[in-house]
RNA sequence: CGGGGCGUGGCGCAGUCUGGUAGCGCAUCUGGUUUGGGACCAGAGGGUCGGAGGUUCAAAUCCUCUCGCCCCGACCA
């Protein structure tokens, strides 16, 4: 494409409401334009990258044997009522009425539609397993859309749904998808991890997220430095308390700690590290009672883990101050496990402590030199906290680091949630009804574009990974208005690359060199050829590599071959 | 939904406190000079100051209501 015929300008400044680098660069480089909150137009440059991502996704899905189809964005409410999600999904589901006052939704996901399709088409176990996928526009009315297309309300998603006769087949299909996803993200040149994820309300036995590592990511993940263990912080674990702890060396002591309610205040007053203190959190129990959760002072309660504990209310609710007073006789700030008259669950790390500090269940008093067994009974232990940097990996090898990630893919073993709700059955070999198991597999196509930029940029602009670059080669002419030779040479190269099917962008604008170089860097095309009188006089052209910064002179006659060599084609 | 902030040419902002009839940079257009890292000179177009109502001789500026956007949090898979 010739830039002189492209009407979208780049910008030196980015709009004030853009926060993360990918959003700023996408606006400045003219990849997207905002239409409404979380709703964006993809301009030609942006769309080209979207299409490249789609092509890779499609190739790998097809290779894995999945079948592409295209389902409607607008879906009748009846299906959602049948699955129960009309009530469950909440305000994120965009609902609308047609002219006959019939209810519809704009699909945030397609389990209902694909299961409806399956129950109409699939009759026999012989048709299983099968995996249907599509690349299609989704709408989720996010509470807070942000970061451009990273968390938009309307976005492109690849969603796939597999149907299986038994668990073994589901596990096989799931593994095939995991392998396909791994290949896709590798091909896109992304630095990512497959991380174990909470299955949440959807349930099911396995779920992994594909997280692109980036500081701006909205998810926290724990990554092992010694093997491939990686998990969402929501469920990352570290080895449990093994029963060994240091012997007591201090006597149990009551100390006056007036007004000292926080761990930070306690550390300052008693000159003890937070890791030697415990905090006692009172949460609502499932039976109308309360449960005390004991965590080391430097650790954070993990709500996902805590609410999975038997006897704890779901969702997790902290007890009110009044409830705490009624149950313990004292107010939050001076609670401790010693002599506490309710169910106590202790985090493994807190259980491993000796000579620790805690509240005395009396106002303005704490205990020091507290030891399990000696001063209070051993209590039930559990994994209650979020792991922190440096915790040992649960695999026993290496330690964990907390990283930020952008979730670009998520694979699930769904089980029979939707096949049961929508009464999908096929006949088994004995002629009996069989309710298939399902898996679902999502990829945020437009989010990948933003995630790729988060990971591939410098202070000048985007640095596209070759496989998803909107163009592979950029031709930049310098002062072609004054040089017929420059223009002719550039035109020839443009024709050559075009004929060879190599995506080439031709900056043939009547602009000054500085403008063209700045835009070249902003747009981030991997390979740039500069055609100017100066080098042309010596029979050379200039080659610039956006990623490595390489800047070399190559003979005119060799340039095309050199580019092809670098592109491997 | 709670808290905070912001709405002034396409973009970035000043002007608001202390009312006096809208300005700067970028971008765009015209002419000229320039030409290997976002040129310079001269000129031009473009804004009912988010919207509605009110106060006032006079409102971007003060008051009321309202809409939109952004940030933090809660919520959500």
Provide a descriptive summary of the structure in words.
This protein is of the alpha+beta class and 569 residues long. The chain has 16 helices and 30 strands. Strands 3, 7, 8, 9, 10, 11, 12, 20 and 23 form a 9-stranded mixed β-sheet that branches. Strands 27-26-28-29-30 form a 5-stranded mixed β-sheet, with helices on both faces. Strands 14-15-16-19 form a 4-stranded mixed β-sheet. α1 packs across α12 (445-455) and α2 (44-63) crosses α12 (445-455). The longest helix has 21 residues, at 167-187. The chain starts with 20 loop residues before the first helix and ends with a helix. 42% of the residues are buried. The model has no long low-confidence stretch (mean pLDDT 92). The chain binds one RNA strand of 77 nucleotides through α14.
